[in-house]
Specification:
Length: 483
């Protein structure tokens, strides 16, 4: 199959969160499975120029309102994937992928509309005729309505199917109607994009894509409820026959305590001596030495209300005599202030590092005994899976993908791999953390760690599910009457 993936971030080129991990790994796995894969990304300032230099380049003029925007397309090969960078310095050569200091770039509508058209015009210029275009989140969602309107009569795309994956429904790309008109849509085309606050790129995609997926089966169900759908529940309920939940995996080569070059000492299931060394070294490095006998609790997440940092701090405060805490994250400045102030107040037992730091994250997953994910909602979550692989036990709220990956049995069951709070309420979450801390000293802890390290979070099953869906979408597109 010829597959075009279009996304606003992908590891290792540019990353703000799990989306990048998913797109980076999935594209390589599809390539490794023998498919012809093009990955289209914006050429942000953060993309090292070495990554996008060389290869072939194409010049495109992307229509925009009454004028057009010149774009160069730079195509480079990375392992099994041809990466197509949309290079347009006025739109992408600036600080911050989506905004700076918690404020969105004011022209994100133009940036991602141009990106979507450049993705399509780009593959056409290269003669790469996709069977399936796999779109990720609102930034790439307009490709689906483009194919149903402006490109509907273009024979080049006549058998191209679209699959739109929702990584997080909270981000909907809502803009005024004029953003759509400037992007080339007719007034009649944008009705389906209307929301209470304006017109949504995501909603336009949800209405137009041939298939929809999201990143866990539980989140696929939650999205159809008023609480989970965040305004999109109606279109998702209407299209539920075309909505699938496919759980993300993690890159087991990259996240591997046995081969991780960032660690003070590598280790594996069955021989956790190296994990103790990682913990001692980490604690010493952050000035918390002599604490190795109590559990080290970690949180590695964006500073966003979704992630429940406030809940974590409330649950932790009365328990800091029994554990140590290290948090790593960046995001909303108001939350940064709160978390940093809290860590200063409890500096005998807690540390907070503000910033995005890949190496620190690896070292902390290896050093920590417990990872907190008190998410208010969590489409899939990668942190809990990475933590388990590193022998760090997750304490999570029972929501979205956390339900599908973390199990706490009330009796000493053999399947327990973590601790779950039934809601994002600080008291519930505190109780779940309390159970984890109680269990730490007991005989069942090693078994919980072992279950986590032995869980299968590989991409293999997910890639098979995506490929089945792509094949079905492409077949339905070729023979629409049979679908
Ligand atoms: P989301 O995509 O909502 O941010 P996920 O749990 O799906 O959440 O993925 C988060 C990913 O980003 C994980 O790989 C996590 O380790 C990483 N991450 C989050 N914040 C940081 C940070 N400040 N430094 C390093 N890695 C981070």
């Amino acid at each position: 199959m010829k597959i075009l993936l279009a996304a606003s971030e992908a590891f290792p080129f540019c990353k703000t969160g799990g989306l990048a991990d998913v797109v980076g790994t999935l594209s390589q796995k599809l390539g490794a499975a023998g498919h012809d894969v093009v990955l289209c990304l914006p050429k942000y300032r953060a993309v090292e120029s070495a990554a996008s230099r060389g290869g072939r380049s194409y010049h495109l003029d992307i229509p925009l309102g009454a004028s057009s925007m010149p774009v160069s397309l730079r195509c480079v090969q990375r392992r099994q994937v041809s990466v197509q960078f949309v290079d347009c310095p006025p739109l992408f050569d600036r600080d911050g992928l989506y905004g700076v200091d918690g404020r969105d770039h004011p022209d994100n509508d133009v940036r991602y509309a141009v990106f979507c058209r450049a993705a399509l015009d780009g593959v056409k210029a290269r003669g790469f005729k996709p069977d399936v275009v796999h779109l990720h989140d609102w930034q790439a969602a307009l490709i689906a309505p483009y194919l149903k309107t402006l490109y509907a009569r273009d024979p080049f795309f006549s058998s191209t199917a679209t699959v739109l994956t929702i990584h997080n429904i909270a981000y909907q790309g809502v803009f005024p109607a004029r953003s759509f008109l400037q992007a080339g849509f007719a007034s009649a085309d944008i009705r389906k994009a209307k929301t209470g606050r304006g017109y949504s790129f995501l909603k336009a995609g949800l209405a137009a894509a041939d298939w929809l997926t999201t990143v866990s089966p539980t989140y696929a169900r939650e999205l159809q409820t008023p609480a989970g759908g965040q305004g999109m529940q109606e279109v998702l309920r209407r299209r539920r026959g075309r909505l699938a939940g496919i759980l993300n995996g993690i890159d087991l080569d990259y996240w591997d305590p046995e081969r991780d070059g960032f660690l003070a000492q590598r280790y594996r299931q069955g021989d956790l001596g190296g994990k103790q060394t990682c913990k001692k070294r980490f604690l010493a490095d952050c000035g918390l030495k002599d604490s190795a006998s109590v559990p080290l609790v970690a949180m590695i997440a964006r500073l966003d209300r979704q992630k429940g940092w406030d809940v974590a701090l409330q649950a932790l405060a009365p328990r800091l005599r029994r554990c140590r805490f290290v948090g790593v994250g960046e995001g909303e400045p108001s939350l940064v202030k709160i978390v940093a102030g809290w860590a200063r107040r409890y500096r005998g037992a807690a540390r907070f590092h503000c910033g995005y730091d890949e190496e620190l994250a690896h070292r902390l997953y290896a050093a920590a005994d417990i990872l907190l994910m008190p998410s208010r909602f969590e489409p899939c979550g990668l942190g809990q899976m990475i933590a388990m692989r590193y022998g760090c036990v997750p304490v999570v709220t029972r929501t979205g993908g956390l339900c599908d990956t973390v199990t706490e049995t009330s009796v000493l069951g053999s399947r327990q791999n973590g601790f779950t709070a039934k809601s994002g309420d600080a008291r519930d979450f505190g109780r779940a953390l309390g159970r984890a801390l109680d269990s730490y000293a007991g005989p069942s802890w090693a078994e919980t760690v072992r279950m986590g390290m032995g869980s299968d979070f590989s991409w293999d099953r997910s890639v098979r599910n995506y490929l089945d869906l792509f094949a079905r979408a492409a077949a339905q597109r070729r023979a629409p009457l049979d679908s």
